[in-house]
Amino acid sequence: MSPRAESRGYKQMKLYYVYILECADKFLYTGITNNISRRFLEHQQGLHKNCFTYKRRPVELIFYMEFKDVNQAIFFEKKIKKWSRAKKLALSNSDFDSLHILSRCNNASHFKNNTSLTLGLDSALPDKLEFNRIFESKKQPIELPILKEKNIDLFIKREDEIHPLVSGNKFRKLKYNLQEANQQEKTTLLTFGGAFSNHILATAVAGKLQDFRTIGIIRGEELGKDLAKTLASNTTLRNASEHGMMFEFISREEYRNKTSNELLQNLQTKYGDFYMIPEGGSNEMAIKGCEEILTTEDHQFDYICSSVGTGGTIAGIINSVHVNQKVLGFPALKGDFLESEIEKFSTKKENWKLIKEYHFGGYGKYNDELIHFINQFKKDTQIPLDPIYTGKMMFGILDMIHKNQFPKESKILVIHTGGLKGIEGFNQRLKNKKTTLKIV
Fold first, then answer.
1. Which strands form 246-250's sheet, in the order they lie side by side?
2. What digits encode the pLDDT tens for the residues 98-146?
3. Domains of the chain, earliest start first
């Protein structure tokens, strides 16, 4: 953290780190520390001759995870010390698909008695998804030359770290919807989305964790003609299916009329009574959840920036900002319809603005410059961005800073709304186009 940031009242939080080192002999060493940089140097330089890694140098840091609570860190270290090498490598590579498979019990009788599959991390992480408490995500400072040059403080609120699969605005939007479904004594959740929808996967995982049956109405009837082939090539739908979601594939024409009484009545006849969550998850319950993204500690920032899809997330942020703050939204879609959608749910009218110059052609559109930017930003900050929402937003923010569109000494908080599981599907699209571009 920069001295300038500290002088403005940002207090460094005490953190603990669980880490994995790969030694020269390929042994994977797991440890815990409150200073990851210092501890790695101690291992690498062999400062302690009695250390297990002393004769196994050089070592490489392949994974670490931050914890605010030392007891949670100790719990997690003990947990992964018992893991196989394959599971540890899957964790270090963020390969949750492989970790899922490796975490299945191999005892046949036990497996038959537990047919509902869970992601390996669900039982391993101490911060298992809990919808009944308030989550406060950490704020990570960004150190880039342009920020020092322009005298700007930039922080990212890491909502993407709430859960591997139900993170960011997806968690916020689902929280009170699932509580409402419980209060209505519903046992089934039904929602809508495209083939690579993060919302579809998040609903499947959250529903499983809360013991709901889940139904996904998916745009594109051709995807249902050979479901096995579709699941083999589509990680998003495969993961949703593994978490128990059933699919109904409908034509694009039907999908455009997805809220028609005729379609909903047909779905109710087929699947019984259900609690419906709209595409993208935005409704009054979702807004209530998104109002919890900001805390009183965030009142110190002059600008709050968020990507915009259906408008629900930014509406919640608008409702919860302090009187002296300005909200900037970066739409991923073309068009002027978003203002009216946001106004349906927002209670304040004068404290926000949409920045419409950075959609890169519309939803799902991109160019080489965007892909290179996302990769460079991750290299510089170790923070991943997705190409649909957060990548475009961050590109826009830094471009605006470069063009002096923020006053000097501005304090900017960026909301990382997650969406990182969509990178796999996006890279598959790039591969199908036979391009060398890839988000790393």
1. 246-250, 213-219, 188-193, 275-277
2. 665 665 544 333 323 333 323 333 333 333 456 655 667 889 999 999 9
3. 14-124 (3.40.1440), 139-165+293-432 (3.40.50.1100), 187-273 (3.40.50.1100)
